[in-house]
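Hi all, long-time lurker, first post. I run a small reading group and we've been trying to get comfortable going from sequence to structure in the token notation. Rather than ask abstract questions, I figured I'd post a concrete chain and ask someone more experienced to write out its structure so we can walk through it together at our next meeting. Sequence below, copied exactly:
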Amino acid sequence: MTALAFEESGPPAAPAVLLLHGFMGSRRDWAQVAGALSTKRRCIAVDLPGHGQTGNPRDEGLWTPGGCVAALADLLARCGGGSVVGYSLGGRLALQVAIEHPGVVARAALLSASPGIASECGRNQRRISDEALARRLEKQGLESFLDQWYHLPLFEALREHPRFPEVLERRRRNDPRLLARSLRTMGAGAQRPLWGDLPGLRAPVLFLAGERDEKFVDVAFNAVARCPQGEAMVVRGRGHALVEEDPEAVAREIAGFLGAA
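-- Answer (accepted) --
Happy to help. Here is the structure in token form:
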């Protein structure tokens, strides 16, 4: 049994799809998307380490990208294989699952996600930045952190969305100490870069980005250019937080991409 908490919906015999949330999220973020997909899919929405009911797992290996990816691949394998979908942090992990465990992944859909930071210098800078954020969480608490985090330009579209207060309420359920640990151990500076693996990726992969999230639109098209079976889609009028801003469009694009897989 996995130490990762998860929730299933849809027919048990249907093709499986793992749903992986972003930083400060939980499996509940996927409720609307899973509701749409679960008519034809066995949706398995996971709480990543430091989040939701997974919380602080005793298995130290789960606090590393490689260990978490292995556990996710094992979960999908016990369902007979299937597809993996991830947003932001979850998207980076989903891509690594597809790369390192090709035998269990039929397709991968990555929302507002990157194959990582290519240069060692860039990863070092990110680790320094994430350490500063982690210390802020530990010293100032969650409410102050949320205020600063969601005033980043990345989340401008989400701040304008009527669902934003609901998102904030869900984020307030987090433990700041566990979020700090997640930043230190699962951030983009801690995860190995995956750019060099893209040409050998066997599974078809979809990079989905919001039109207003220009950085990740560029990432999507740059990544797809390296993937033998890559596809990029842009959701018009949306920003980084696609799952929150437009779950209907996300479900529609994912369903179309997964097809009969």
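A couple of things your group might point at:
The longest strand covers residues 105-111.
The first helix runs from residue 31 to 37.
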